[in-house]
């Protein structure tokens, strides 16, 4: 498996493009979501709580984005691992084992992470994927 490197931090302009694409996907499905976009240093660049999204999703979305970024993989991996009985994930710091976090790649490097919360696991992942694919791989 090829190692994916971290790239330079996501710019505000790119973060807005990611955010807008994710929001458009959520709005098209009439889902009230929170969308968090972090740069490659795990700092928040953009956060959007859509009208009527639950307040708790603000922190959950950020945790999903940070987990995807720090571990270089979608958070779905951790959710599936726990469901399969891999309890070791529970002993690791700063893991959010809930689907809906995806690394953001640009020019083949990880430049950020997106986390989405507010719907079902599949809905969160669908919205995150719509945002993450904007910059390409």
List keywords for this structure.
4-stranded antiparallel β-sheet, 4 helices, 137 residues, single chain, alpha+beta, 38% helix, Beta-Lactamase
Please describe what this structure looks like.
- With about 140 residues, the chain is α+β, with helices and mostly antiparallel strands.
- The chain has a single domain (about 10-135), classed as Haem-degrading domain (Beta-Lactamase), CATH 3.30.450.150.
- Helices cover about 40% and strands about 20% of the residues.
- It has helices at about 10-30, 55-70, 75-85, 120-130; strands at about 35-40, 45-50, 100-105, 110-115.
- Strands 2-1-4-3 form a four-stranded antiparallel β-sheet.
- The longest helix has 17 residues, at about 10-30.
Model regions low in confidence, pLDDT < 50 over at least 5 residues: none
The number of helical runs is 4
Question: What is the H/E order?
Answer: HEEHHEEH
Mean of residue pLDDT values: 95
- Report the end-to-end length measured between terminal Cα atoms: 16 Å
Q: How many strand segments?
A: 4
Order of adjacent strands in the largest pleated sheet = 2-1-4-3
Q: What's the number of domains?
A: 1
Helix content: 25-40%
What is the CA-based Rg, rounded?
14 Å
Q: The biggest beta sheet, please? A: 4 strands, antiparallel
CATH architecture type: 2-Layer Sandwich
- Helices and strands: which structural class? alpha+beta
* CATH fold call: Beta-Lactamase
Give the C-level CATH assignment.
Alpha Beta
Per CATH, the superfamily is Haem-degrading domain
Which strand-content bin applies to the residues? 15-25%
Form type: globular
């Amino acid at each position: 498996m090829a190692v994916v490197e971290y790239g330079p931090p996501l710019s505000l302009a790119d973060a807005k493009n990611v955010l807008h694409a994710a929001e458009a996907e959520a709005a098209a499905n009439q889902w009230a979501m929170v969308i968090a976009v972090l740069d490659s240093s795990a700092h928040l660049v953009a956060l959007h709580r859509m009208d009527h999204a639950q307040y708790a999703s603000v922190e959950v979305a950020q945790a999903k984005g940070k987990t995807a970024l720090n571990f270089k993989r979608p958070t779905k991996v951790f959710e599936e691992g726990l469901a399969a009985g891999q309890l070791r994930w529970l002993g690791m710091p700063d893991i959010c084992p809930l689907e809906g976090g995806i690394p953001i790649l640009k020019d083949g490097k990880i430049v950020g992470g997106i986390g989405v919360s507010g719907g079902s696991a599949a809905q969160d992942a669908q919205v995150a994927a719509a945002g993450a694919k904007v910059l390409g791989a």
